[in-house]
Amino acid sequence: MKNTLYLAGLFILILIAGCTYTSAQTKTTFSHIEKMAGWASCDVCAGSGGSGKTDVYWQAQFQTTPSLSGSSSEFYYGGPTPYTSALWWEQLGSFPSTSHFTYDLHFYVTDITAPQALEFDVNQSLDGKKYVFGTECDLRGTYKGYWRVWDATLHWQNTGVACAGITAEKWHHLTWQLERTADGHTHFISVTIDGVTRTVNRYGTPLASSAKELNVAFQTDGDKAGSAYSVYLDDVTLTAW
Length: 241
Known about the structure:
By secondary structure, the protein is mainly beta. It is about 10% helix and about 50% strand.
């Protein structure tokens, strides 16, 4: 009888372990986000403290040139006010059970000397907190040529990880590995550009929020002259599990 109970219990444990493993490996993938309807945008909210100045900006989807898939999305920043920004984002729904993310995309910059920085973000809000996986390549600022990541308390933090090698009129492949940790932090695991992976391993503090959402975002930052430029995004994918 004892052996029977033991075997039955072991069988149940195996079943539970199997279900847990399968659940943990279930992934949701959003492909070609650049083609989705419903992109939102702003300029003022992209400024410091969410109260920046207005500028000229727009998005044009379904561009055939340049593109990799045959249909890229153009994000135009035109200044002319110095140090302004434009932010775009696409809501994907509410997926509170997901805590790991792969943000993968290709980008093409018309003039690499024009942007102050380029920002690639994932945002998740649940349980009263907003986890801002904010990442930016600083192109002309204090930490020129390095990735910075966002912390709600400390704001932009230099990672010491280079984002050098980004050139104009060329497609670059970017991948971020990100995690919402069990103890309630953002974890910037690693970044890959054009096949070269670098460990970041930085943690951030979330914001307070009542929202329930998952989205991806892209931001263009202007330099001291408000120089105009376009960035094309293609094959934008978010995988969440």
